[in-house]
Amino acid sequence: MANNVVIGLHASGATVALALGAYNLVRRVRGDRAHRWVGRVWVVAMYGTILSSFAIRELRPGHFSWIHGLSAFTFVTLSIGLWGALTHRPAVHRQFMTGSYLGLVGAFAGAVVVPARDIPQWVVHQPARLALGAVGCLLLAAAVIAVSRRPARLGGDAAAAGTVPGAGEPHRPA
User: Fold this and answer.
1) Which of 34, 98, 121, 140 is in Cβ range 3.0-4.6 Å of 148 for a Cys bridge?
2) By the 8 A CB rule, do 77 and 99 touch?
3) What dihedral angle (degrees, nearest 10) is formed by the CA atoms of 75, 48, 86, 79?
4) In degrees rounded to 5, what are phi and psi of residue 22?
């Protein structure tokens, strides 16, 4: 795969993760259907961003750099945060997911403020393509949020969450 394709996928995943992570952190309600669905897509976008970073080796051509160490660290913190959610440890989940998101924000800042990096170069040389890609990523994030806010279907998440009357109760024949 050409390095430009990997960098484009990496930047797209990071952009979607930035938008969805901000949404989930700003919301007051935690643990509801919308939080879980947005969080699931955010985790997939984060893992995609992390894994794609290992195919990008521009700082030290052909070798890993210190940035890949940060990617490995983020892989661990994201995994611990996911484990916290799956094992119902909200404090662990909150701390590690917030830390992973703040790391993503820091990485974004580093990618934007260094003039030799790809994003500032794209702003100068390919602004329309960059804008189109950013709008596409933000529309994808908005679609995920919109779908996550739709009411649950009966027998789906609502039954599993116990919000449907009679869900989770044993069946009693009449």
Assistant:
1) 34
2) yes
3) 0
4) -60, -45
Q: What pLDDT was estimated at residue 60? A: 65
What per-residue confidence (pLDDT) applies to 155?
A: 65
Query: What's the rounded mean pLDDT across residues 17-26?
Result: 97
Could you tell me how far CA 171 lies from the centroid of its own chain? 39
Token duo for residue 71: 């990617």
Say which residue the tokens 């969080």 belong to: 39
From first CA to last CA, the distance across the chain in angstroms is 62
DSSP 17-70: HHHHHHHHHH-S--SSHHHHHHHHHHHHHHHHHHHHHTT--TTTTTS--HHHHH
Residue with tokens 């908005």: 142
Sign of the four-CA dihedral 163, 161, 21, 135: negative
Side-chain-side CA neighbours of 101 within 13 Å: the count stands at: 22
**Six-digit token string for 44:** 């997939």
Q: Residue 162's pLDDT band (boundaries 50, 70, 90)?
A: very low
Count of CB atoms within 10 A of residue 98's CB? Answer: 15
Sign of CA dihedral 137, 140, 146, 149: negative
